[in-house]
Write a structure and sequence with these properties.
Elements: E1 8-12, H1 17-28, E2 32-36, H2 40-50, E3 57-59, H3 70-81, E4 86-89, E5 95-96, H4 104-132, E6 135-140, H5 153-173, E7 178-185, E8 197-198, H6 209-212, H7 217-229, E9 234-237, H8 243-250, H9 252-260
Parallel strand pairs: 1-2, 1-4, 2-3, 4-6, 5-8, 6-7, 7-9
The chain binds nicotinamide-adenine-dinucleotide.
């Protein structure tokens, strides 16, 4: 028996990187998929590559920044297979820019997508999971949700905010048999830095060495699906950067010193 046989999994940011790799992993584990992101063509490509039956995958284009639209999208998602077993809030955007130079509009965009959109989607799906008396909500946070590095103040703030919100939610929905899994990747080999937003709102457009040498998304996806299957509360993955979580907890001043060294000269 596959772990997600007949389970319905809704993934945002499914058109590339971690979300795409996770779609393939869930497909292998027997899930039916709802794939969301903004680009339909990319979602169709991913759907094809899952090798699932046409009827097992539903493409639902969504712009997570468009918060007013989210309740209607959630209704469509629930109506399609009649239930949602896993909501994987994965869509997100990173940042490269100093606090002094970054426009307020950039902070608003990051918070809208990485935080408010995620809350809106979660609130829209929760009543269905409560009726089912089961469900799992997973969120791609980041090691940047546990510690902070320069040039990513808005990104770090948005990911830290997720921890406050979802730790609170976990205790509220425990009695409904709904679990919450916060996923904290380190450096994963995706286009996240290319797609990151710069101080003036333009695309950063460069591949960071850390990402280029990071963990493969396929390995990351295996660990994510495993953490969700086991209802883990919080998981870390990546290379030696994961040690930062423990430095922050036990040697915070040492971590500050290391992090200072990451400020571009
Ligand atoms: N790659 C890393 O090193 C890393 C590390 C920690 C956390 N993360 C997190 O992983 C998640 C996925 O990022 P990734 O690394 O796969 O990068 P990516 O840029 O390849 O993927 C981002 C996904 O989000 C989607 N997306 C962006 N804006 C959207 C919007 N407004 N509405 C709907 N979808 C939108 C994109 O289309 C894409 O599918 C993000 O939340 C990111 O913060 C990535």
């Amino acid at each position: 028996m596959k772990r997600f046989e007949n389970k319905v999994v809704w993934i945002t940011g499914a058109s590339s990187g971690i979300g795409e790799a996770t779609a393939y992993q869930f497909a292998q584990e027997g899930a039916k998929l709802i794939l969301s992101a903004r680009r339909i063509d990319e979602l169709k490509r991913v759907k094809k590559q899952t090798k699932l039956d046409e009827s097992q995958v539903f493409i639902l284009p969504i712009d997570v920044e468009n918060i007013d639209e989210i309740p209607k999208k959630a209704q469509e998602a629930v109506a399609h297979f009649g239930r949602i077993d896993v909501l994987f809030n994965n869509a997100g955007i990173s940042q490269r820019g100093s606090v002094l130079e970054t426009d307020m509009a950039v902070y608003q965009k990051i918070m809208n997508l990485n935080f408010f959109g995620v809350i809106a989607l979660t609130k829209a799906v929760l009543p269905t999971m409560q009726l089912q008396k089961s469900g799992q909500i997973a969120i791609t946070s980041s090691l940047s949700g546990k510690l902070a590095t320069p040039m990513r103040s808005g990104y770090c703030a948005s990911k830290h905010a997720l921890h406050g919100f979802f730790d609170a939610l976990r205790s509220e929905v425990y009695q409904d048999n709904i679990g919450v899994t916060l996923i904290c990747p380190g450096y994963i080999r995706t286009n996240i830095s290319l797609n990151a937003v710069s101080a003036d709102g333009s695309k950063f457009g460069k591949m960071d060495d850390n990402q280029a040498n990071g963990m493969l998304p396929e390995e990351c996806a295996k660990r994510i699906v495993d953490a969700i299957a086991k209802n883990k509360q919080e998981v870390y993955m990546g290379g030696k950067e994961v040690l930062g979580v423990y430095l922050k907890r036990f040697f915070p001043k040492l971590l500050s010193k290391i992090v200072r060294g990451q400020m571009p000269k």
